[in-house]
């Protein structure tokens, strides 16, 4: 499928008449790493003349980068420039620890829409049951109590504040066990 | 499976279709499928005859004792095709399984055929995914494999994954399910973090190898090094250079101190030079070392500065050196004491000028594998050619990986290498300027070449001296390098280059094409020639439906075909899918595709014994 590509460059007239492959509304950005949208291969210059095509690129100002060309892995590109890898742009990752379990896990809070989803996921992850949540009494029916540390450094009971507020203020999660947990049973 | 194979037993069907387990050549598959379909009973009669003289179980016992010595998977695949009995016994004795495409078969099929697997090598995403030519979350999940193997192979010892998506949960399951687990190798993988690594470190008490290579590992702020158990470990290899997370150095030092079998250690760039110094003094038995950062925080004239050269001098056994992140070149000479022992040197993350480089390489007479950035220039390559007569593998990466970059290496470096390193077997060379003459020279000087990958970074660049296409250069490579199995082409190329490849590329298994060729004829030459072609990856080349149809007779005998940004139509791809039911034909779009479009952005097709996969993301359509 051939289509005249979209090209910013007006100086090089040849470009306008060249046949090229490209999707409609082609972007001219380089995509890298983890972006969900990827830039589309924007131009494959189809040679109208049969042989001996000379470099048309040399005359034009810096052109758009082609995705994935030259074929150097992003890992290598990032390391040569010794750039520290960017932490994930999207996603709100918080550490989750459980009393008695040796390892931390991390979860992305943006993956959940409400408390029940989050609780279910935690229960699955650490193989425990959290009991039932009551507004005044906190969690009943289990030794485990899910708590979180908020922006102010206070330890709160998970579920006490509206979900959006929780997501924006939660720094880390801790699933407490036993007597220590009872103290937090009376919500905030 | 299609009904028309009723003549063959299911076993034979598997045999002729066992290509996913990487048969050596299409010829064997063709031969066996044709012979078993025409004379299925003949071979069985032979066996029937034998079983009258020796009971079956005796024969199989003997066979088992013999076949257990077969290591090479090509030999094993061949043995499994002899007859049903051999197939059965081979399946019982195969302890290492290689799966080149994780979607070529289901995990269940693996565990049903092979009962005593100790080691699995599994590859996932196609290579072009490394260059952002595919949206993330395409697939290649390790989860179904680990959960199936957890039940079937409790004795599993080794897992080696490439381009797979591995989660922390997968690693946790692995650590929980395989008490004798010894080796974990993750190459170009992603989806996990230091939490998963911590679980493996802690629970796999017999761990010998933990190699994380060019993988994306998220920093969960877990001190995974401290998670290794107390006491003497079995560790032989620990590579974590791709883990971009700070390391608890005291814990690392302690770990190295109680790992007497540790031979291979690859540090990340967050381990400083001073820390490296301490480690080296405590681990003189190392044979392979990846340094961390190779720079100094303090002023170089500090009196307290450790004697790095002495530390290296103590490492008499080091033969393989890599790392050198954040290099301060004035510290490079500290490696001089080990240079004459080195067989492998990787400078590909270090921006080293020719002047800094030459005194070092001058001592590396035994070098066989050398990776570097093009910052060493043609001059540096000439120095390599003058000294490294045993060189087998060379990789030169671009310091500035853009199309318009300067390009400090050229045909001069290539020519010099070809003249100095006659035993060269494998080369990957990024450059901006090249000539046919230099490529021809290499084809004539280096007859042992099995891998030739030349990347002229500017697209469609001709021979910069003659202005001609690069056809003759690549033509000479395929004509003269009789052992060539892997080829990557670039520069201005006409259909003629492909004619040469089709005609002379008798052993080529892997072919990478980008921005090359004039017409369908080019691809046709390759598909109608190149009898051993297994892996074909093409991007941005003018090959369309006509060309695609030319390969229908052979797609079953290939591992995969990738074509992106080529003028293919959905209709034709559908035809191919219809005509070849055991081929999975994936059309991969971007996230915001609309289905009405006939344009095929990326075609990725591969044979599969178990039909299309069930974890298809929304941007993939299986035709």
TrEMBL record, chain A:
In terms of domain of life, where is this protein from?
Answer: Eukaryota
Per its UniProt record, what Gene3D superfamilies does this chain match?
Phosphatidylinositol 3-kinase Catalytic Subunit, Chain A, domain 1
Where is there biased composition of kind Basic and acidic residues?
Answer: 43-56
Assembly, in brief, is: Homodimers and heterodimers.
**Which family does the similarity line name?**
Belongs to the Aux/IAA family.
Physiological role: Aux/IAA proteins are short-lived transcriptional factors that function as repressors of early auxin response genes at low auxin concentrations.
- Which named protein is this? Auxin-responsive protein
Automatic annotation (TrEMBL), chain B:
Q: Which residues form the COI1 F-box domain?
A: 56-95
CDD domains noted in UniProt: F-box_AtTIR1-like (cd22159)
Location of the region described as Disordered in the Swiss-Prot/TrEMBL record:
1-23
SMART domains attached to this UniProt entry = LRR_CC (SM00367)
What does the subunit section of this Swiss-Prot or TrEMBL entry state? Part of a SCF (SKP1-cullin-F-box) protein ligase complex. May interact with auxin and auxin-responsive proteins.
User: What is the name listed in the Swiss-Prot or TrEMBL entry for this protein?
Assistant: Transport inhibitor response 1-like protein
**Protein location:** Nucleus
- Provide one Gene Ontology cellular component: nucleus
Pathway terms, separated by semicolons: Protein modification; protein ubiquitination
The record's listing under PANTHER family reads: F-BOX/TPR REPEAT PROTEIN POF3, TRANSPORT INHIBITOR RESPONSE 1-LIKE PROTEIN
Main location per UniProt?
nucleus
Q: Which Pfam families match?
A: F-box_5, Transp_inhibit
Q: Where are the transmembrane segments?
A: none
What residue stretches are annotated with the Transport inhibitor response domain? 115-161
Query: Which example biological process does GO assign this protein?
Result: auxin-activated signaling pathway
Record flagged with keyword Transferase:
no
Which InterPro entries does the UniProt record give?
Answer: COI1_F-box (IPR041567), F-box-like_dom_sf (IPR036047), Leu-rich_rpt_Cys-con_subtyp (IPR006553), LRR_dom_sf (IPR032675), Transp_inhibit (IPR041101)
The entry's keywords: Auxin signaling pathway, Nucleus, Ubl conjugation pathway
């Amino acid at each position: 499928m051939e289509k005249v590509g979209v090209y910013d460059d007006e100086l090089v007239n040849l470009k306008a008449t060249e046949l090229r492959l490209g999707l409609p509304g082609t972007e001219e950005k380089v995509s890298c790493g983890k972006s969900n949208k990827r830039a589309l291969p924007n131009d494959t210059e189809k040679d109208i003349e049969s042989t001996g095509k000379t470099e048309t690129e040399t005359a034009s100002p810096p052109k758009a980068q082609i995705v994935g060309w030259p074929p150097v892995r992003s890992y290598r590109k990032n390391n040569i420039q010794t750039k520290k890898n960017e932490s994930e742009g999207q996603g709100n990752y918080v550490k989750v620890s459980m009393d008695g379990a040796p390892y931390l896990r991390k979860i992305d809070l943006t993956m959940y829409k409400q408390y029940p989803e989050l609780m279910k996921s935690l229960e699955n992850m650490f193989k425990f049951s959290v009991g039932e949540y009551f507004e005044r009494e906190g969690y009943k029916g289990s030794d485990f109590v899910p708590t979180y540390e908020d922006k102010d450094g206070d330890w709160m009971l998970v579920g006490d504040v509206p979900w959006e507020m929780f997501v924006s203020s939660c720094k880390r999660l801790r699933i407490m066990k036993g007597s220590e947990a009872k103290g937090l049973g009376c919500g905030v | 499976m299609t009904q028309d194979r009723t003549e063959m037993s299911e076993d034979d069907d598997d045999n002729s279709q066992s290509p996913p387990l990487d048969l050596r050549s299409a010829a064997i598959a063709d031969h066996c499928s044709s012979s078993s379909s025409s004379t299925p009973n003949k071979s069985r009669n032979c066996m029937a005859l034998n079983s009258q003289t020796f009971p079956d179980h005796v024969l199989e016992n003997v066979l088992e004792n013999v076949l257990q010595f077969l290591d090479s998977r090509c030999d094993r695949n061949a043995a499994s095709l002899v007859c049903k009995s051999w197939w059965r016994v081979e399946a019982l004795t195969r302890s290492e399984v290689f799966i080149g495409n994780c979607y070529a078969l289901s995990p269940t099929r693996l565990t049903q055929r092979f009962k005593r697997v100790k080691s699995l090598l599994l590859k996932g995403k196609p290579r072009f995914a490394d260059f952002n030519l595919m949206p993330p979350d395409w697939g290649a999940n390790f989860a179904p494999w680990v959960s199936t193997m957890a039940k079937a192979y409790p004795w599993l010892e080794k897992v080696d994954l490439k381009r797979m998506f591995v989660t922390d949960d997968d690693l946790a399951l692995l650590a929980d399910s395989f008490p004798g687990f010894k080796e974990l190798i993750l190459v170009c993988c992603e989806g996990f973090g230091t939490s998963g690594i911590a679980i493996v470190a802690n629970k796999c008490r017999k761990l010998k190898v933990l190699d994380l290579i060019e993988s994306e590992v998220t920093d969960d702020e877990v001190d995974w090094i401290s998670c290794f158990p107390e006491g003497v470990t079995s560790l032989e290899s620990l590579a974590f250079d791709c883990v971009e997370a700070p390391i608890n150095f005291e814990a690392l030092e302690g770990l190295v101190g109680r790992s007497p079998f540790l031979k291979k250690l690859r540090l990340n760039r967050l381990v400083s030079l001073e820390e490296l110094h301490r480690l080296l003094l405590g681990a003189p038995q190392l044979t392979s070392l990846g340094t961390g950062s190779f720079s100094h925080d303090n002023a170089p004239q500090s009196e307290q500065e450790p004697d790095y050269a002495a530390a290296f001098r103590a490492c008499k056994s080091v033969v393989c050196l890599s790392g050198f992140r954040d290099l301060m070149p004035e510290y490079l000479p500290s490696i001089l004491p080990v240079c004459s022992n080195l067989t492998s040197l990787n400078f590909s993350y270090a921006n080293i000028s020719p002047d800094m480089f030459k005194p070092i390489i001058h001592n590396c007479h035994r070098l066989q594998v050398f990776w570097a950035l093009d910052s060493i220039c043609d001059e540096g390559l000439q120095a390599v050619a003058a000294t490294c007569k045993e060189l087998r593998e060379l990789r030169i990466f671009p310091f500035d990986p853009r199309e318009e970059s300067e390009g400090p290496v050229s045909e001069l470096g290539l020519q010099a290498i070809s003249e100095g390193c006659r035993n060269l077997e494998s080369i990957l060379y990024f450059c901006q300027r090249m000539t046919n003459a230099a490529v021809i020279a290499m084809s004539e000087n280096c007859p042992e070449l099995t891998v030739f990958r030349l990347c002229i970074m500017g697209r469609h660049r001709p021979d910069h001296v003659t202005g001609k296409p690069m056809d003759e250069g690549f033509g000479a490579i395929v004509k003269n390098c009789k052992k060539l199995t892997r080829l990557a082409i670039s520069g201005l190329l006409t259909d003629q280059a492909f004619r040469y490849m089709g005609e002379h590329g008798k052993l080529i298994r892997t072919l990478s094409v980008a921005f090359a060729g004039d017409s369908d004829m080019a691809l046709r030459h390759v598909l109608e020639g190149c009898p051993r072609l297994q892996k074909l990856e093409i991007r941005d080349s003018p090959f369309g439906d006509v060309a695609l149809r030319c390969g229908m007779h052979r797609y079953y005998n290939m591992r995969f075909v990738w074509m992106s940004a080529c003028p293919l139509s959905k209709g034709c791809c559908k035809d191919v899918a219809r005509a070849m039911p055991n081929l999975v034909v994936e059309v991969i779009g971007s996230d915001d595709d609309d289905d009405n479009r006939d344009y095929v952005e990326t075609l990725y097709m591969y044979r599969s014994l178990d039909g299309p996969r069930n974890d298809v993301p929304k941007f993939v359509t299986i035709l």
